Amino acid sequence: MKQGVKIGIVSGARLGFGSFILYCTNAFCFYIGSVLIQHGLASFGQVFKVFFALTLSAVGVTRSTGMAPDASKAKDSIASIFDILDRKPEIDSSSDVGTTLAAVRGDIEFKHVSYRYATRPDVQIFKDLCLTIPSGKTVALVGESGSGKSTVISLIERFYIPESGSIYLDGVEIRQFKLSWLRQQMGLKTIIDNIAYSRQGHATEEEIIEAAKSANAHNFISSLPQGYDTSVGERGIQLSGGQKQRIAIARAILKDPKILLLDEATSALDAESERIVQEALDRVMVNRTTVVVAHRLTTIKGADVIAVVKNGVIAEEGRHDALMNIKDGVYASLVALHMTSA
To answer: How far is CA 33 from CA 15, 37, 51, 242, 294, in A?
Structure first.
């Protein structure tokens, strides 16, 4: 706003100055011309030749001053474009720098992590987040909307960098890992983008069918007109929500990630589709380190650990039954609210 006001003042001043010069030129020509004609020192034609020459010159000056703001805007725009092109990202997904592990167990630990979104620096998402996710266990993250549940997954995959604190995978700070390798160890499934998973290299038909069976997707795929070769349209437009979910789960199974990240995996599904998808997820999560973000609390009752995120920290942590027994507990309140709204 300040820059806009400044540009407006400068533009108005330039336009006013240009118009002032033009009108002064006209007045000067008419006055001097009339004096010269009166004393016989110039003819009427000669006066108007000079008048038009000076007037056109003044118009040119006025128009050129009006173009100055446009030139300034163009200069600023070019500068911002080159700033973007020359910017060195904090998280460079194309970099090959970093270490790897020969074998991944899947132990994840958050130690005193603080974070704010770059676009909302005044909002503290996490201020001292401490969370342990044991290898091979399922940890569910619950909490109010905007509490930062999905941000936990983004931090694990290094889409964001914490302001302070550290995140460890198998005892190694994740910023030390090669980024492409780190993300290859994880399978991220979001309902919004319905991200497709694939294995590096080639998979056999038998492996694909086995993954589809594990995801409860084989039966409906086989019933399609051309089976596995059926065209489903752009972005799977011919598939239902539950079918898209199961295909995405099958791709995650085929990838066989050591760490599985599930962000609202059953949202926007009807009860029957949710049951089928949940059964598929239960199979996938066996012996994998799994982080689940869910608003539907019924889908995470069987989790090994349920962590309740509130005000940027872990407010409660434990199994479903233990958390329900906490008097006036945050988790118990969320369950009661969920049951009331249902």
So the answer is: 27, 6, 8, 88, 86
